[in-house]
Structure formats: structure tokens, C-alpha cells
Amino acid sequence: MTDPAGGFGWRAGSTPYTLGGIAERAARATGEEPPLICVLLLPRQLEHFILRDQAQDLLDAPGVVAVEPARVPYGAYLRLPASVADGLAATQARRLRLPGVPRAIVIFHPLQYPLARGLIAMHPDAELWYWRWDRYEVAYDASPRQRARLEELHLAASLRAAVTVVVSEALGDLAREEGGTPLLVPLAADSFPAPAPGSAVVAVSLGHLGHRTDWKLLREISEAMPELVLLLIGEWHEDESGRDPDFQACRRAPNLVWLGRRSDEEAARLILLADVGIVPFERSEFNDTALPYRILKYARLGRRTISPDLAGVRTWERAVTIASSVDEWVVALRACAGVRTAPDLELREWAFAQSAHTQNKPLWERMEALGIESGRLGSERV
């Protein structure tokens, strides 16, 4: 991207640094006319533009360039008096150097119309294309005065446009009511990620994400299983794991979704979206004898747990699949694909049977043996 004048940046095809220089040098050397071009006036930088896929497709043509916003953003026009905004736009148009002669100037918002009008005044053979992907003139965040200005600019752009591009039939109907002949060009989403849905495995981890977590294991699993979606429910602790390169790799992995702390009600419903729960603990003395609470919570929702070979988890072996290597984890995870639509109801029934009253039975028995009235097991049963 270059910054030819007035704080603008322009892009052309896949070589944004070169086209303008080539056109100018060719014109000077041969006396030929500079090329005819189509100019896309982008309301935002290309990477952040909602229509970037279609803009990028057009930029593949050698005769299409994109002009990114100036240092004075288009939104400033709405905050300035109309006469001042128009004067500023005309000045910006005069300062803008293009790598050819515009034959089409494309705007995507009515606030761009003053700049387009200034460019057309310099290049009267250029036609205006007004690309409407929203009803900007009734924007939620605009004051009544600003809406009136937007309506004014919208009407002016609509009347001046040789082509009104609309993304929906409904916008086309509005354009026809205003006397235009709209051209329907629906939206594209080429750059939006689209993992294969048929092979997706959704796993969930509920709880602490710090010292106890085997970040190397999670990194290797995420790399070995691009079809995996891992929902991480719980706070992550940069102070505990921030310097671990495997943790940092996990933070960047697209198939690990960091959801942060959630209420129990929210967490339960997120678990319902998963095929299987996991205990991603590293093998350590601290972890080996623990009985992770999450195993029972997953089971109450009909989800098994995959865990490393920790001695403590075998207490609930009915609900646990042991995986000792990355390959075993991958096999176990893939075996669970689709459970989210067919939960293990017998496992759920088992989990409900692990109630506090049932689990506490040895304590009640001990109390009665000591002569302490429990109200549960002795002669005073209720």
C-alpha cells in the first residue's frame, strides 16, 4: 500500500506498490494515455472491510484500484457543517493521485459521495457506482441531524449513480422506488473459515486452565485434529502459563475456543453442545490422585470423559476413557463424534445416582456408630 497524497492509501490488484509507477512511467516514455481504471473508494482498510472478499476479487483485475480512507475519516464529514465537509472532500479529491484515468468510481456509503463528486468533477467521463449493502441513511447511531445529512447524501448519490449495486432484493425495491435501476450483487463470504461439518468433533474442558493443564498435549491434539473444536470453559491464567510456548500456541490455535468463566447454568448448556468432555491434566504427583469434579458434571449430561492415565480418575471408570498418547487421544475423540445428538442416557442415569446423599452414606454410618443422631440410618429413620 502506498500513501500518494492527502493521507490516502491505494491498492491495485496483487501489486499495490507498482501499478501507479508503471502507468506513469509508461505514459511519459511512450506518450500514450494512462490506463482507464475503476476506483473503489473503501470506507475502511481492506482487511477490515465487510465486503473485502468481493473487493479483493475485483482487485484481481489489473484495471481496478482501491483507495483506502484518508487520515481524516469519512465519519468526520458527518460531524462537520455540510459546506466545510464538501470543501474538505474537494481538497482531498484534488490531492489524490491515481495510477490511471477513472472510468468508474465506486462508493459504499453516502458519506463517500462528496469525495466521489470531487473526483468526477476532475474526471467528467467517470461514472458513479453506488454499492448499497445497508440502509445507512437510517443508522441507529446517528442523531436526527446526522440522519437528515445522511438522507441528503444518499439521495444525491442515488440520483448521480449510473449503477446502484444492491445486496438484497429488498434494497433493490427501495432503489426502484427512488427511480433507480438496481443491479443485484449479493454478499460473498469466501474468506470466512468453513471447517468440514460432517467430520467435526466437539469436545469441552470445564475448569482451571493453568499449572495443571498439559499444554503440550492440547497443542499436539489440536494440530493432529483440524476437525476438532475444543470449548475451553474457565479462566485461563497467563501468570501461571503465559511463558509456556505450548500455551501460547494453544491461545493462537483456531480450533480452541476460549470462553472464559461461565455460570453453572451456562456451562451446562455449553456441555450440551459437545460430544465429549476432557480432563487435559498433565501427569504429576498433584494431579495423579485427584478426582476431577468435571467427570461427574459431564456424565450428568450424558457425556463421557477422556483423560490421561491418572490413578484418581479410575474411581469413576464407568464414565472415563483413558488415553495415554496423542494418537490414543485422537482415536478416542473421533470415536465420540456425533454423541452431542445422541447422549449416553445410561451414563446420565448413573451420574444422577451419584448424589450427595448416596455418596455420604459411609459418613452417616460412622455418625450412628458414634451415637450421633443422623436422622438417616438409625432407629429414628425418617
Structural class comes to: alpha/beta
Strand order of the largest sheet: 1-3-2-4-5-6-7
Output the CATH class name of the largest domain: Alpha Beta
The helical percent reads 25-40%
The shape, in one word, is elongated
Task: Report, as a whole number of angstroms, the end-to-end distance.
Answer: 80 Å
Question: Which stretches of 5+ consecutive residues score pLDDT under 50?
Answer: 1-8, 12-25
Distinct helical segment count = 17
For the sheet with most strands, the description reads:
7 strands, mixed
The CATH architecture of the largest domain would be: 3-Layer(aba) Sandwich
Strand content range:
15-25%
Oligomeric state of the chains in view: single chain
What's the β-strand tally? 13
Helices and strands in order:
Blueprint (H helix, E strand, L loop, with lengths): L8 E4 L6 H12 L5 E6 L10 H8 L4 E5 L6 H5 L2 H14 L5 E7 L5 H10 L4 E6 L11 H17 L2 E4 L2 H9 L4 E3 L16 E6 L8 H10 L3 E6 L4 H4 L3 H8 L3 E5 L3 H8 L4 E3 L6 H4 L5 H7 L4 E3 L12 E3 L3 H10 L9 H9 L2 H4 L1 H9 L13
Parallel strand pairs: 2-3, 2-4, 4-5, 5-6, 6-7, 8-9, 8-11, 9-10, 11-12, 12-13
Antiparallel strand pairs: 1-3
Helix pairs in contact: 4-5, 8-10, 8-14, 13-15
Question: How would you portray this structure in words?
Answer:
- The chain is elongated.
- The chain folds into two domains: 176 residues, Rossmann fold, CATH 3.40.50; 147 residues, 3-Layer(aba) Sandwich (Rossmann fold), CATH 3.40.50.2000.
- The longest helix has 17 residues.
- The chain has 382 residues and is α/β, with parallel strands linked by helices.
- Strand 6, helix 7 and strand 7 form a beta-alpha-beta unit.
- Strands 1-3-2-4-5-6-7 form a seven-stranded mixed sheet, with helices on both faces.
- The chain has 17 helices and 13 strands.
